[in-house]
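ugh ok fine here u go
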Amino acid sequence: MPYPDLSFSEITSAVVRQNLRPDIPRCCPSSLANVMKICWDANPDKRPEMNEAVTMLEAIDTSKGGGMIPPDQQQGCFGCFHSHRGP
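structure:
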């Protein structure tokens, strides 16, 4: 949950009024980060249609985790997010 201290209505308002978006983790591959940024554009006219977003996501190289799994954790899934999870 990117904003645990905010209610749904507070998040919704901040997204619309203040262009609130989650931080993209540093370990996120640039190809995925770019898709996220495009899909989160404040101007709805600049956002891709769902089929375009799917095409962009399908084009990302996901071999070996697509760059999201640190080399020392290649067996896990999305290893770069492990430090952000609770017990």
